[in-house]
User: Which sequence fits this backbone?
């Protein structure tokens, strides 16, 4: 710990005493670090272990715990019969505990700083990297359009059945108003030319409308049934194809610019 050695031939006890006196003056002036250094020089020149106690006192008052502990440790080792050794040993243990705690705190703070620096670097690197959407894995999927055919067939069939029912209802109503013989009171009235009808009934127009409605209904329900069957067959028999469920709109940004892409399938 000495900042000077006794190897130089010109270093005498007089020089050691000079540094000791200067250290004592510095201590009295409250310049504790300077006093400790002067006492260390004096110890290095003279080799007097008692000077280590002065070094300890100076570093203690300078609040330099590690150096104070080192000086006191050296003093107790060099002076086995030091006065008040028990109390000084207890003080040394307390100082060493403080040094260990300070080192642990310093190491923890250093680890936290390193971790913070690492996270900062990772965040900066991540911001600098281009951001792309990852395309999802392709999945097998059956075509969906045959079900549109099935739906159209169902609608057509339902419409045809409805028109047929309406035509049947209108025919029944017309039979009630038209008879072959007024005396029959409408019990039997085939829709043929020559029927006798109420004066307000336009037989030709009503008969044409009913026949047209029935014909359209037949065409619709027959065609709708065929369309529904065709759609079901296509939905079952058509092979599955690979598809990619990627979003229709993707975007990518890099420092200074951004890009967007619209994906459509036909």
Assistant:
């Amino acid at each position: 710990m000495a900042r000077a050695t006794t190897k130089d031939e010109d270093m005498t006890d007089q020089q050691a005493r000079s540094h000791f006196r200067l250290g004592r003056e510095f201590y009295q002036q409250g310049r504790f670090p300077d006093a400790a250094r002067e006492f260390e020089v004096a110890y290095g020149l003279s080799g007097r272990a008692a000077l280590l106690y002065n070094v300890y006192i100076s570093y203690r008052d300078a609040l330099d715990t590690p150096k104070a502990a080192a000086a006191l440790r050296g003093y107790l080792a060099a002076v086995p019969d030091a006065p008040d050794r028990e109390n000084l040993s207890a003080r040394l243990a307390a100082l060493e505990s403080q040094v260990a705690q300070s080192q642990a705190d310093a190491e923890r703070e250093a680890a936290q700083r390193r971790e913070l620096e690492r996270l900062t670097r990772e965040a900066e690197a991540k911001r600098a990297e281009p951001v792309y959407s990852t395309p999802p894995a392709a999945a097998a999927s059956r075509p969906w359009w045959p079900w549109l055919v099935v739906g159209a067939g169902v609608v057509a069939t339902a419409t045809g059945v409805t028109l047929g029912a309406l035509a049947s209802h209108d025919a029944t109503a017309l039979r009630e108003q038209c008879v072959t013989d007024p005396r029959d009171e409408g019990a039997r009235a085939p829709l043929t030319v020559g029927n006798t009808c109420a004066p307000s009934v336009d037989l030709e127009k009503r008969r044409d409308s009913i026949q047209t409605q029935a014909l359209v209904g037949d065409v619709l329900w027959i065609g709708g049934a065929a369309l529904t069957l065709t759609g079901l067959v296509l939905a079952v028999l058509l092979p599955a194809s690979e598809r990619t469920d990627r979003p229709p709109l993707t975007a990518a940004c890099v420092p200074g610019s951004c890009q967007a892409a619209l994906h459509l399938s036909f």
